[in-house]
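Can you give me the bound-state structure? Components:
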Amino acid sequence: MSFANNAVSELAPLAPEACVAVGICAVLCADLVPALRTRTAGLWLGVLACAIAAVLALSPARAIVAQMLVIDGVAGLVRPVIALVTAFVLIAGAGERRSANDHGAWATCVLGIGLGAMLVAAAANLIVLWLGLELISLASYALASWRARDRRAAEAGMKFVLFGGAASGVMLFGISHVFGLTGHLDFTGIGAAFAQQMPIAVLASLLMAFVGVAYKLTIVPFHFYAPDVYQGAPALSVAAVGAVPKLAAGAVLLRGLATMLPPSLVPPASVGAVLAVAAMVSLGVASLTALAQRDAKRIVAFSGIGHGGTVLLAAASGGGTAAAASAIFYLLAYAAANVGALLCLSVLERDLGSCELAKLAGAIRRRPWVTVLLCLFLFSLAGVPPLAGFTAKWAVLQQALGGGPMLVAAAFALLASTAIFAWSYLLIIRAAVLAPAPLLPRASGVRMPLPTAFVLLCCAAGTIGLGLWLDALPAIAQVFS
Amino acid sequence: MSEYLSLVLYLLVVLAIPVGISCIAGRLAPHKPNVNKGKPYECGVSEPFANQTRWPVRFALVAMLFLIFDVEALFFYPWAVALRELGVAGLFYIASFFAVLGTGYLYARNRGALQWK
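Here's the bound-state model for the whole set.
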């Protein structure tokens, strides 16, 4: 039995992931019972699995599992958050998708994204990283094209698959080169092989190997799928497709930068300047393109591209714990506001038929509380104090302004893009609050489902709470060190 | 840096040859387009029937399921080879893997993915 004991003790740190995997199996089994299929039982099973996974992932123990996965400070913080956000999306699904009859399949896809994201967040090996990203991608493709006969959903799904396939291919090509040049696939092995200096060929291969991460962070030029996916998929599914993978991608990016690069290249040195340029391009393209959009979900998509760029800027600012803490704090603030905003848009989309700005007119009369909360989340994304978005942007700026000239330039690009983005968000708020509307009846007869209201309040509490928690960065940095 | 010079030169040559051939062919070749030249076949019987037909999406579904189970069944081979060394732990690993695989199979079968309706 010692073998079995060894196996269990070796795999014990992966209990949260195992819990979500068991949850997926349980949801699929529940879906096989005809009486449960049309009810939300599958969703609640998924919520239970995620809640247990989140509690298990809170354990402060640090571990390395077979040179494949590492539970370090970043993973220890991000994995419970991923499980929590996945649970919130599932709870919201119980409210927003009450009349649907495909709860099991939908919950399986959302849980698949959660499981993949947890693996990516803990990945310390390029193969595990690729497998986790594929797990996220496959579930995301299905969620993006969920509305079977909708042309926009079909376009979104096709673009998502083609871009995802290309990104995955480039990533595998890069991984094969990394292995050929170093003989290692684990992050620490690659780092140890080039402890002093890294040849350009290895650096280029690593860049290709991290294309999949850039794709999930929607960094320009890997962003083209995002607006169509956000527009074509139901808003609630977008919350899972958009926010959860970004958390994981940010975590693994930080780990990769910290463990694989030699000291001469670690940000804010030369690699930091390259990342800063990529961040600047993402911020510029996203903020300017968002101005031309006439659909609230597309604006939120471009905001996601900009936020991906900001996380990249935070990662470029330094290899220390302070920069990592600012990046992770930014992702937490983004996740709370993004999930909240998309859930509000999901409610309005169900009521008004679409998230086009022209259709949003009169939303304040029909759903006053949802519209007010939507404004709160958009203000947070825009970086208005005292909300989480402001504190997070402040932290990133502080890090970037302490770096080299390229980082300072990128910090100014962040400021400029924040101002431009604010205009786009105000377009949504104007459409929902101020625009003259046909006299819509107040949706007092249609009560807000309790699960939706619960998740909205949690997101609002997170957005305000993270903004007011002034000691957040030192606290997070302490977890990392 | 110099060790990459040959690689850069090679890439430039690789790029130049197809671009060059396309440019030369575009300049020199006579252009007399007609309907038959635009068709996929240049010889033989010209399209006896339309080749753009609809085909059932079930082909894709069955192909996908086959691929998934085929690739996953491959994992049993290395386990079988290393059965004795892995011992009880190996049984534990493969049992958990088999449970996941079995759930997927039951789900696909129960939801009618394998029926040719």
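A couple of observations. Helices of chain B lie at 5-28, 58-74, 76-81, 83-110. The first helix of chain B runs from residue 5 to 28.
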